[in-house]
Amino acid sequence: MKNHINILIAAILTVSNTVYSQPLRIFDKDDRFDWIQTARVFLLDAYQPPFAPDLEYDADALVETMVDMNANVVRFGTMGKYCTIQGVRFSTHPAQGDRDLLSETIKACKSRGIKVIPYISTGHKLAWSMLTKDFPEYAHKATPNGQPNRTHMYVGEDHGTVCWMTPYRKAYLDYVEHVVRDYDIDGIYFDAWSPHYFWQDKRLCYCDSCRTGFREATGLEIPYHENDDDYSVVELETIDKYHTWSGEEYVTEVVLKVREIVKLHKDIPLICNINNPRRLMHQDPRITNSMDAFLYERGHTILERAEGVCVPRSIGLHVWPYVGVYHNWPRLAFQGFNYQQQIFTNLMFGGGSIIAQPTGYINNPEHREYVRYPFGVIKKNEEVLEGLENYPYVGVVFAYYSPEGHIQKGWLNGPTNARNSTLGAFAACLYNHVQVSSISELVLDDPAKLKKYPILYLANIPFLSGERIKNITDYVNNGGSLIVSAATALFDANGNRQSPHSNRGIGRYC
After folding, report:
1. Which of 89, 191, 244, 445 has its CA 20 to 30 A from that of 42?
2. Rounded to whole angstroms, what are the CA distances from 475 to 124, 177, 450, 482?
3. Rounded to two decimals, what is the model's pTM?
4. pLDDT for res 178
């Protein structure tokens, strides 16, 4: 038998051919966008100063700071409390007048070699006055004949929720086309693609468009109770149907059309907020396939940051994790060697870096060095680093969710599940100086990708589809080495524990 590395605690079992409902296939995206990997990004959102409550934005001051700190990309908010551009059907800041802040930013940036990526606020909350006075037809109705969900967000006036079934959809698509067609931009960033962004409770809308559209599509009415406990089983099933209907309408009539609009006018990357690596496999695959790169809002620990960058890179996708955190104090310059450590970690595993809330550096130049230095290293070695990939040796398959019966709990060590097992396997290799990548489960669907890793590590993965077991079996037969631990493949796709006698698959190698 060929050389195999096998650690067996539980046999790998054959399971049904049912897979998680994600027929996602994204491999080796266009390398024309490899510049994303070495991007040194400043993020300016328009929810806080210098865009709200007062408008104090100075594009020239921003660009001078970016040049000094070796940043080369700005992600600029075209919508926050208010719209920062002209020529669209959304309200601008009361003090904005005829200023177009995106135009000002592009003018200041382009002469200094800085790329501009506008942030197209996607289904995000809008200023309360915009939704109740200027454009009430865009509003989500959280109750029959009611108003949007209302919340306070950072500074200035409150925000309210929007509904994609209203005229907001057409205004948004026109807004996207205006930005892509009429501005000299290098990419375009969207928020999280969610059809019910910031909706609360049962995430229902009672606007006329939702009520009429859902009735025509299903013959059903959208149920409503003030108390969530009062919904019957039938009504809860109706709510699921509403979410399915509205979600499908959203993907086909918004997400796919947005990509079509962008690519019609410019060959630039589409980037969205995926937030963390597990969402790659748990959102509609048509959304993921429509994007060219992703942003993580949170990096968590340095270890999780390294892991999270590896996962999308293993299937050819670019990723920007935040450096630091998104906080409530944009005028403060958060600084320290932790920022350097985060930037270098992103770099080592193939990710770019995005500095959230950087405006504090404009008036506090003494803190710039902590970002200037690592960004300078990247700038100096940019040509070498673009397209660089983590050397494939050990591939630890990333997993997050565990069925209840899969989770083991102990009074001393806490719970053992797929999440801490796969992270722990990645950490064990990393801390022992073994070349390792945390890889997407999609690698198991692609024999060509899989065979690049001499060693495959399945650390307590509860479920493997029949097709993936076949691919792993072929991988081992062709010389690949396999490490299996804990309760890998002991559960079916529904989370039920299987009989150990059902094994007819790769368990024979263990």
Report:
1. 89
2. 45, 46, 7, 9
3. 0.89
4. 98
